[in-house]
TrEMBL record:
The keyword Cytoplasm does not apply. Its cofactor is [3Fe-4S] cluster. Keywords: 3Fe-4S, Electron transport, Iron, Iron-sulfur, Metal-binding, Transport. The keyword Aminoacyl-tRNA synthetase does not apply. Pfam families: Fer4_13 (PF13370). InterPro entries: Fe-S_cluster_ET. It comes from Streptomyces camelliae. The lineage of its organism: Bacteria, Bacillati, Actinomycetota, Actinomycetes, Kitasatosporales. This is Ferredoxin.
């Protein structure tokens, strides 16, 4: 599963790091690090992280079929909120 975070949008809320800690982590207080090739077994956690991002900085391919709602996965952006 391909994952992209728009680091220009990310405000460091860290919601993604709480919801998908195996994919996202904060390095220091503001620097987000993430695995751009998230493992398939993280799909559900990743979908929650994408949905929870307050600034919609996360873009993940292949999440539409999980959520069942248009725009709730692929093509939807979210961030890592702090």
């Amino acid at each position: 599963m391909r994952l992209v975070v728009d680091l220009n949008k990310c405000q460091g809320y860290a919601q993604c790091a709480f919801l998908a800690p195996d994919v996202f982590a904060l390095h220091g207080e503001e620097s987000l690090v993430y695995n751009p090739n998230a493992p398939e077994e993280q799909r559900e956690r990743l979908a929650r992280a994408v949905a929870a991002c307050p600034v919609q900085a996360i873009l993940a391919d292949g999440l539409d079929d999980l959520a069942g709602e248009p725009g709730s996965g692929s093509g939807r952006e979210a961030s890592d909120g702090r």
